[in-house]
């Protein structure tokens, strides 16, 4: 049985994550307020960011930067700026 959350990213009820995927308070906030769909969207952006900026996940500074981007994307409605990436135009 899947759980439903009011997703702050989609601004509607949606299927929630099955378990907390991120540690700590932020992880709990994501689990309680972010849907599977929104998390999947973030994962795509995160992969592009890691590749674009050649981030090293062993580097605390890089992880902090990524976490900041994640919060802005999921909770503040800010899209991730990736140099040289032009999103497809929606019709």
From TrEMBL:
One GO term (biological process):
cellular response to oxidative stress
The GO cellular component terms are: cytosol
Keyword entries, A-Z = Iron
Which Pfam family is one of this chain's hits? Answer: Iron_traffic
GO MF annotation list: iron ion binding
Q: Which domain of life is it from?
A: Bacteria
What's the family? Belongs to the Fe(2+)-trafficking protein family.
**What is the role of the protein in this entry?**
Could be a mediator in iron transactions between iron acquisition and iron-requiring processes, such as synthesis and/or repair of Fe-S clusters in biosynthetic enzymes. Necessary to maintain high levels of aconitase under oxidative stress.
UniProt xrefs under NCBIfam families: PRK05408.1
Q: Which PANTHER family match?
A: FE(2+)-TRAFFICKING PROTEIN-RELATED
User: Under what name is this protein listed?
Assistant: Probable Fe(2+)-trafficking protein
Its source organism is: Lacimicrobium alkaliphilum
């Amino acid at each position: 049985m899947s759980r439903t959350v009011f997703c702050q990213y989609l601004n509607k009820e949606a299927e929630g994550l099955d378990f907390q995927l991120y540690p700590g308070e932020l992880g709990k906030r994501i689990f309680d307020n972010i849907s599977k769909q929104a998390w999947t969207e973030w994962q795509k952006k995160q992969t592009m960011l890691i590749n674009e900026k050649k981030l090293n996940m062993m580097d605390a500074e890089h992880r902090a930067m990524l976490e900041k981007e994640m919060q802005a994307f999921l909770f503040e409605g800010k899209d991730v700026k990736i140099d040289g990436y032009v999103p497809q135009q929606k019709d």
